[in-house]
Predict the structure.
Amino acid sequence: MSPLPAFPIGDLPVMWLRDNCPCTQCRDPRSGQKLFQIGSLPDGLRVAAVAAADSAGAPAVEVTWGPDGHRSTYPQAWLEAHRPGRPERRDRRTEAGKELWTARDLTGRVPTADWDEYLAEPALRARMLESVLRLGFMVLRGVPEREGQVLAVAETFGYVRETNYGKLFDVRVEPDPNNLAFTSVAITPHTDNPYRDPVPTVQLLHCLVNDADGGDSGLVDGFAAAALLRREDPEAFEVLTRTPVPFVFRDAGTELRADRPLIDTDPLGRVREVRFNNRSIGTLRLSADALEAFYTAYRTFAELLERPELRLDLRLVPGDCLVFDNTRLLHARTAFAKDGARHLQGCYADLDGLASTLAVLRRADTLEPLVQLFAGAGTTEYLGEPVSMAQHMLQAGARAEAAGAPPHLVAAALLHDVGHVEDDVVTGRELMSGNDNRHSHTGADALGRWFGPEVTEPVRLHVAAKRYLCAVEPGYHDRLSEASKYTLAVQGGVMTAAQADRFAALPGAADAVAVRRWDDEAKDPDAVTPPFEHFLPLLTALLRG
């Protein structure tokens, strides 16, 4: 056998490793589904021998198993990406897989797209669907203003969820409404259909007419609000996560009920769902003390949801279609004149269909746009530094690699400044002229096309990490380059103590600080770095799915 490969496998759990054997005896080559039961693996399973191997031209590790002699070949890139202890793949339905926001955070970056371009460009469609998963919504402009068109929008990413309201429903003033949504009164922030189990997870609203005085739409990030409640009033947060609330809907032909908490968390305590609809809460039957605690917490959360800074206001115009996550975003509406014409059509769909469509779109995507960026627009000047943007990012990636950083951090360091380039236009020049181009956010948004939060979030936070380090590390500011000191002021300046504390508590803060340090060091005009192609196997192993 060949000598032991460089990648160590001695510390890998043997049952886990064998369970992930990719050979055709263990997995169906068409579906990828396993052909064995975990209980059918032999007793006394052990690694009998290890050798270097090749898998489709890439380095791999061949394992011979005892006592049955089975052989498994694992690509080294796969082992690197999945080694136990690496950041876990986040459940994208929880707050850990989202970008939480207030209205100010979305200034200049509300996810919008033209309908025709959305249909014609798979990469744009993928970016918009990613926005629904990450931010909770998207707005499509120029959708044909005809009745029933909202169903065609839903079918671009999934399947229509039919309810007692039908396949679609009309949001307009009705003469005998069975829901306040079908009146002209103001509707406070809420989620739809909390009385269903399961609740429809995606909602679409297509504007056909909006000539009324009033009737503006509003969105609130329920996950961000829940996180704020947890920080400001942990006891109230805990009460709302453990108290089942009876949500009820009744009319002549329907009787629906679901008993769920206002804030639902996963086994790790991460927010996974918000159900909030004051119109649908039935009578709670609890002890007097439990009722007192619930209503105190309920009122606190309700008042928090009404804070103006949390609410993103939108006025939908004919042709606009708003698509949003109904388990996360609360939507609202201002009152409007009864005699004003306002007509929206809506329908429901589900996030699993949307996520499936996004994953299929990504199968056909490649990293070629990044290859072109490093060969083209990235070769231009880098914000007053003595290196180009491509040189700077390659140096950062090489430094991360030399430091033994895990693959996701090498990728984040390598790609941290891609937000300075948009459509081959170097927006970094805008930053140097005194206008913050928010490149950390736009870069992370763009990279979400290929990578998960383990790569995108250190990129999103690397500017905040500079502001943080200036606040907590004596001498850090003085070591910054002159250009970096200038951009610091444009990007918000040194964090306050409270801001620094909040930053340090973020899940990706430590990774962002690591990327920041490699960023600061990567400005040597004489440094020799590998080409971008050197990193392609690592990046390919990190691709979603």
The two ends are 33 Å apart (CA to CA). The chain has a mean pLDDT of 89. The first strand starts at residue 46 and ends at 55.
